[in-house]
Write a structure and sequence with these properties.
Blueprint lengths: L1 H25 L3 H18 L5 E4 L3 E6 L2 E6 L3 E7 L11 E6 L5 E5 L2 E2 L4 E2 H8 L8
Antiparallel strand pairs: 1-2, 2-3, 4-5, 5-6, 7-8
Helix pairs in contact: 1-2
Amino acid sequence: MRPLLHIATIFLVLFLFGGFYYGYIWSDPFPLLIFLALWTPGVYYLWTRPLRRIRFYEDHFEVSGWKTHLKAEYAQVEDLSQVRRVIGDFRSNGTLWFSVRGNPNVFTMPNRTFGKPKVELYSWLLKKNPEASTST
């Protein structure tokens, strides 16, 4: 999500600069209005995602996001699956999709490696709760 946010921010700054320059020189605010019409839904989507921060601990994890703040044990993880992307964040090994028992949201996050020795997040979560997997 962060690389996408950086690209969107750079695009915003360049387009705002160009839009204001074009509107000031030619007295035409049309490019700026088009940009705002296209950019606003994207910002709203990124801001209202149910998962913005996740922290893993030895016996539980915490999820926070838009109208979501929960603390759950690994036994409550359901429908854990790994989805490989053709286009996207090349730093990760696909995307994880999972849900938590009792919560209607489906959470997605990059499947990164962490720690020493390096451990893939999907396999680590699968070790914590082997019944959660739906596909490999």
